[in-house]
């Protein structure tokens, strides 16, 4: 997932908008060939141009502006269809459009091949003029890490394996890492993380990574439920099939942390990942149990399948104790978010209008869509069961993503700027730059917004 070096001899890839004339640089024979192939510039069309020694170049249909809005990373389709070698774009690409095209090409090069061969495209792009190639390669590497972590099945990606990945990342960038495991969680004040993970023979843990000595402090909290059976409220098999991705928040946070460290952003980074397996045994936590969280709030368990907000609650409370400049929480938290917005559009929640606006601008600039949802105060009563301070699973099922977000907000009281992202972390079917499987959501938008939010 790297660009071809500048100065590499490269074939030309002409970007042609729908209905536009063919390039004057084509020979008469090439133009006649393109017309015979029915090339019109429609979005995604690819026409290889013949030459004396084989392929001499290619035309790619860049469609209309509306078509490009409807399909992110359109140019990645060309990467998938071109023969091996170096290619350079010939067309009017500038600014954010050029960056999206170039990044999409890199992301198309990702394939998960740990257990079976998976052939990735061999066509390499010479980075367009004006594009920061090193930055985009760092972003692509962070996204590849996220995808690898989500795609790895739970037998090879439990809490210990997630810890190992975090340790490798910390070692690569000179970050500090500490881990609290098993029964030590109780002594250290993380009762909810312990309760959720204690039923599994794979010990629960809190993974903490710190990097950077100067600048504003940013805390990233990621849900690391490495597999979710639902606990005693056991999921049906159809709902358990994708639960290897329930650590998608942790995977996305680690990918984002890699981007931040690789780019050397002037901030102090703190990453907190509660890593557990929500399993079934005689030690499992039960419906109707009540636990006192790290924050001191009592929580009644009314569904053991609403475990993500529990482990996040203790981690958020720990992040909040330092009152950092910004806390961001990412989690594959609720099915309700998917019902509302589908798999491509993650909601985020914040009370800070300026933070919301910066995230929205970042999301649009880097083609990493987000949609703001409300911390709707009238629903606060839904998460208050009466017998305890909080209910982890309000009855009725309405506004499930909002009530989950409200639950998490109760654990952030000392930090002014906080946002929660209810991501999906999975690409249901292959799209340009996004093969079927694990995918990061929100990380690139956050990365784009951080300089504005923190004044970097």
TrEMBL record:
Q: Which UniProt keyword terms apply here? A: Aminopeptidase, Hydrolase, Manganese, Protease
Q: Which Gene3D superfamilies match?
A: Leucine Aminopeptidase, subunit E, domain 1, Zn peptidases
The superkingdom of the source organism is Bacteria
**Which residue range or ranges hold the Cytosol aminopeptidase domain?**
303-310
GO biological-process terms attached to the record: proteolysis
What Gene Ontology molecular-function terms does this entry list? manganese ion binding; metalloaminopeptidase activity
Statement: the UniProt record of this protein carries the keyword Protease: yes
The record's listing under PANTHER family reads:
LEUCINE AMINOPEPTIDASE-RELATED, PEPTIDASE B
Q: Which family does it belong to?
A: Belongs to the peptidase M17 family.
What is the protein name for this chain? Leucyl aminopeptidase
